[in-house]
Amino acid sequence: xxxxxxxxxxxxxxxxxxxxxxxxxxxxxxxxxxxxxxxxxxxxxxxxxxxxxxxxxxxxxxxxxxxxxxxxxxxxxxxxxxxxxxxxxxxxxxxxxxxxxxxxxxxxxxxxxxxxxxxxxxxxxxxxxxxxxxxxxxxxxxxxxxxxxxxxxxxxxxxxxxxxxxxxxxxxxxxxxxxxxxxxxxxxxx
Length: 190
Prior knowledge:
Blueprint: H1 3-26, H2 31-63, H3 72-103, H4 126-130, H5 137-164
Helix pairs in contact: 2-3, 3-5
């Protein structure tokens, strides 16, 4: 190609870039709001990544028979994958929650949960009136982090139980009489 043929293409790309920057410059949010959205996006993406990682575990679980003998390489690869899931669930997800709560939500130890004022609470909020102690947003932030760890631990136990019980068929429950004998329909098996 000669130089004159590429120049209109370059001018068109530069023009499109200028339009793109102009559009997003008009709608550009404040830096604080933009950082908060990115942190919220980071927390949401960490949860979505957790779901995808666990989905990958269950996809492999369904196609792996109980009597399969793993090679050394397969065992190391799967162990690394499970370690990454555990690292992600116990490390990244709670970190993203704490970062978002500390920064954009601004849940500090000097912010108290007061609640709405009702006629019978006087000048106190409903939470302040009902509880014999002061409740801060920092406590709520930490309780939510503990709940995240609890859900991760319960999910860990469920995943290991499913892995150990793969390939085990559930026994069918037969209808029984009051005396524990199986019920047989008339005419069946004759």
